[in-house]
Protein 1
Amino acid sequence: MDGIHDIGGMDGFGRMARDESVFHAPWERTAFALASSARMVGNTDDFRHAIERLDPAFYLGADYYGRWLGALEVRLRERDLIDSDEVDRRAGSAAARPRAIASAGLPTASPEGGPVRTIDRRPLYAVGQSVIARDLHPVGHTRLPRYVRGHHGTITRVHPAFVFPDTNAHGWGEDPQYVYAVQFAASHLWGAGDHSVSVDLFEPYLEAA
Amino acid sequence: MTDHDHDHDPRALRAEALEAILIERGLVDPAVIDSTLDYFENDLGPMLGAQVVAKAWADPAFKRRLLDDGLGAIAELGLGGPQVDHLVVVENTPDVHNVVVCTLCSCYPWGLLGLPPAWYKSLAYRSRVVREPRNVLAEMGCELPDDIEVRVWDSSAEVRYFVLPERPNGTDGLPEDVLAEHVHRDQMIGVAR
């Protein structure tokens, strides 16, 4: 989805503030621990997608662990494990009740182990090759940032194959795919700048240039 | 909770209510909450990454393995852990400076650096460092000379990036544990030289 989370290159968020805190308040620790350990069917990709599906105003106003807390509640209620009305009553307020759009599909199983997979085909692309990041706009979860779509880049590393977030977040299977480090020139992405930006892109996000 | 302001934050009330409901329903184990926090706050942290950097500075063969196969090399030190399923170590040199971000969320090599500071997760850092890294670094106190090439790494998949900073002058012959004290978290993210 082309969501509020996809902020690479956006203007308006101001100067860097040197806030070194990991947690600002005890509730942020609680939110981290609950989101990390609550037992439910799902995976990291659907957790990230739950954050992305939060109402944009909620997302921007919630701060980092506020988004974790919101996404945790969204995931729990989508699985009928809790009822947000009950949370309102117990909290004595609906002020922090998260709003979110529905997912295109939820996982039906939880994975074992990490996301790296061995697949029985060769990578389509090689180091040094020119590629284009496809101009895709999937309705669901994706890890293809908007700021590289349609741009030319160069493969600098071929990583192993990983579970494909675009399907895994929705219970549509792991469909593992090779991942590539693709280097883009800032002058191409932004019209200015002498640096490069390297983005890790799954094979289906790419086409040969 | 003792902090008056936090008592009245609706998010604090909601976190407390959710915690109580989840415990009552057996969806979280209070002991797991405690052990999770203990692990992330006490067992993990930048001291682990600093150990990797110090070893790479002291041992050229280890450095080659680290740059070639990050995960395999840190496993030699008994390291790995959460959010380090695949690791790429990028080396700073007199001519190249690397800096790491996650624009889509806030991916970070927890197993080597612990949980990230607030600024790493901030909307300003995530949005700006891919577009104007020199300005962002300057605002953080790191002025890069114009002739240094800047490479930004957006960790958009499950690969985690880790910066190997340059070894400071005047550290010849120091043992690894002393070298590790010269390494700061910001260098391993790439917002300091």
Protein 2
Amino acid sequence: MANLDQLMAIDGALAAFEMNERGELQQHRVVEDSAFDERTLDLLGHMCVANMAIATMQARGWEASFGKQGFYPVNGFTLVGLKWSAVTNGCHAVVMSNASADYEKAYEVLGVGGGAA
Amino acid sequence: MLTAELMRQPGVIAAGEYSYRGDRFSYKGEIDDEMARMASIMCRATTMSEHMQVGMLEQFCPDCGSSPANGWIVRGPMFTVCNVANVFAFLDNQSASLNDIMALMHKRLADEGTDLV
Amino acid sequence: MIRSLLAVDGVVAVCHFRDDGALVEGYGRMPDQQLQALARFAHDYKRLVQGNIDQLAMFTGIDGWTPPGGWIVHGVGMTVCGVGNLVCVLENAAGNPSEVMRELAEAARY
């Protein structure tokens, strides 16, 4: 299970937060002078939940059509914006700068298995 | 062509391109026509959703650097799907470097328009 | 033409939007800025529903889902209904989404 301090220790991390199953913000950390306020992180949390639900539906449908392959259960979704990316798994998410984004590291800290050897 | 270049990267199982209008797709790799068609429909739907979400985030936080959307990643236990603009790639988690693939896609697609046409 | 939808019970706003999400015309108890935002939301939501319904049709192989007839988002006190490039907001306590969808479908033909 990731904790917020571990997520904030990822190179380029701008914010980390925990949400409930509905996406509502439970606790968060941001870097100093962050543009990300609670209202924005709460919206982002709802998007994380929505995206994981849609991706899970897609993986389920895909594997129902073509057999089990290794997409389901989805254990990570990343939304890549212009300057930053939001990576989520379970009830945690980290927002990191695209300039130094290490997606594999983020998934590792978020407890996602199956990374590159 | 980017899909051909992606197929030369380690761990890339398939790569494809779809039109935002939803009327055509092309692909290379270890999937068949039907899988590529379905993958294109799913990737297009997720991309449309991502653009909507990033637009909302931009309204909440105009200085956060959200917009325009720059891609998304779905991480499964064995495979990952990543998408930038209207190009997608299926990766084997064990042998592909997600960071390298995303960097390559962002580099090659940096000048793509964001009006989804 | 779409202004007449305001006469339907519970409807507080109605918008017609272009395929790029721009507001064509909008009426009701909302400032212009909110009507523009409603048009944008409805445009995005129409695309989202189209994408999801394409996937539902694809995964289930069942005919009759696509093209979508419209969408309804039901909130605690308000509901948003969309058909084609038209969208209505109604108060749950004062209106009926079924009636609004019927009226929207009729108006969307023109």
Protein 3
Amino acid sequence: MSPTDLLQILLFLALILALAPFLGAYMAKVFEGRVAFLAPAERAIYAACGTDASEEQSWGRYLGAVLLFNLTGFALLFTLLLTQHWLPWNPAGMTALDWDLAFNTAVSFVTNTNWQAYGGESTLSYFSQMAGLTVQNFVSAATGIAVAVAITRGIARRQARTLGNFTVDLTRGVLYILLPLSILVALALVWQGVPQNLAAYVDASTVEGAQQILAQGPAASQIAIKQLGTNGGGFFSVNSAHPYENPTPISNLIQMVAILAIPAGLALTYGHMVGDKRQGWAIFAAMGVLFLAGLAVTYWAEMQGNPLLASLPVDQAAGNMEGKETRFGVVNSVLWAVSTTAASNGSVNAMHDSFTPLGGLVLLLNIQLGEIIYGGVGAGLYGMLLFVVLAVFIAGLMVGRTPEYLGKKIEAREVKLAVLGMLSMPVGILGFGALAAVLPVALASVQDAGPHGLSEILYAYSSATGNNGSAFAGYGADTPYQNVMLGLAMILGRYAFIAAMLAIAGSLAAKKIAPPSAGSFPTHGPLFVGLLVGTILIVGGLTFFPVLALGPVAEHLAMLAGTRF
Amino acid sequence: MSNLIRPALVLTFVMTLLTGLAYPLAMTGLAQAVFPAQAAGSLIDREGTVIGSSLIAQGFSEPGYFHPRPSLAGEGYDAALSGASNLGVTSGALIEAVGARVAAAGIEGAVPVDLVTASGSGLDPHVSPAAARAQIPRVAQARGLPEQTVRALVQSRTEQRILGFIGEPRVNVLLLNLALDQTKP
């Protein structure tokens, strides 16, 4: 590894490590109601909603509030996309989306997936981007954070019946966290060259006399929240590989930090809110171990280049550059790819479809493990807590004691719910994916022949179920079949986890807290971190390694043997 | 149930006003006041005509110009239809396309990888310094310039890593070609 590559990685990790404790503590304050610089705005919103901010909800009502709010958001976005040709700010004259693409895109943004079956500059009006997508970027992220906070309260409280108030949690998440950070990031991005205007597309006459139409738009404001909210849906079709969306190494660094900062911070918010910071750091560490392992493998694989090009002859000292941008090179493309798949963000600055087989395998696995390596804002934390329940349960089985977590007994109900939530991943990825691998209507979407074609199918259904949104983008996803099925996979992945974890939190909230004794299993040391990482890898491994062997692993072996498809 | 419906509707409405209209419109105003050139797309104006954007690649095929990376945005360098090949490493189509580009490049020895692989956006405005250097003999000959002059120009137009380690060294092809036209049209 070259010293500059190593330094770039270390700088990025140092920035995350420096920001996470600060953000973690701040977010804990926000949700404990100790930040109030926008109190008048808050009060006005609660009054309009007819909500008493001090009135808390049971887990069932909290879930109901989440579902109704998301359903309303879906209905509005779906309608906007179907009628964008009648609405303002449409200088490029975009037509209405087909119903299936509108359904897919609306579901995708409401569930924080941001899968791009749409094409950005070739499909959407400025109004759809702003009043449609940007809004869901904010509120789907705030929904995730709110649910994570409610679940944390459930774990922290003793003999309680309520988890908080969704309206209050959502409003605070937007007003105090997402909006201020977005303003800062958006401004920094414009400084680096990201456009922010409502002008018509520009007609340019190039130096050699050709015509070039330059797409424009209010890009920076959308891109800031797309990263901070781990949404990931691009303003432009190729997302943050587009030089307008991500013009410089500095804009790239800002966006990468924006992807991981809040998810990493939330792990520590958790520690604050349960009253034991070590618990937050244990979860942070487990996430970090998995992150670094994935980064190492992907960097190594991409630097090898493509052996099938070597004899043409091509000088591949720079690594595998198909689908990558010169200003980022391999190191920033890899750092981004691992972050975006770990964090359920799904924005890309290089095309994952053209990664080497093992590089692509890590990206797939990051998603399939449940998006818990920092994960989506909020979603990563509650996803990880689901694995914590399983890890504690397995530890309990090994020593023959009733499993406990933070003084609360983990019993049959919690474990059943955790397994039920977790099962959404194999159902969405393997079940829906298997259908897409046999039905002729779905097989038409596959671009590449050979094992890479299977990887494309797998990636699409992993990304949808894991609410990631990145793609092996050669897969032709904009067909009625794919739009509907991928949309359903997104709904399954998002709400199965939310419902299961809120139910677990509801039942944990009602329990007593037993004081720690000599027999309690500490959940903050390296032993627990190791057990948690082990649980994640065993569950993920048993579920997905067989199919990964048929896709990326087979492709890797074929590549080494010099086979082309 | 009923007292969950009102917050859902009102919150959706309020958040649409706040994050979907107030926020992007305020940012548009602010951006145009503070960074007007960037907010408008970093356009390059020559005698009243926009000839492109310094951030966006445009096609160059004449031998007297440096060539950018291959593009799969639309029909090539279509800045309203960004796109990539998305071909996997074992794809026969990829290997054939790269082989054809190597043959067309007319460069002795191994060709720098970025010059024969398509970028992620199809609009990558840069090539690596190695890819620019490999084109110096062709450009110098077509323009009747000494290689020395062209090499010096490439050198002066090479952007280095920020602080010595952030990003990759690179040359903006459009800006290099404009400088070349100024040296000797």
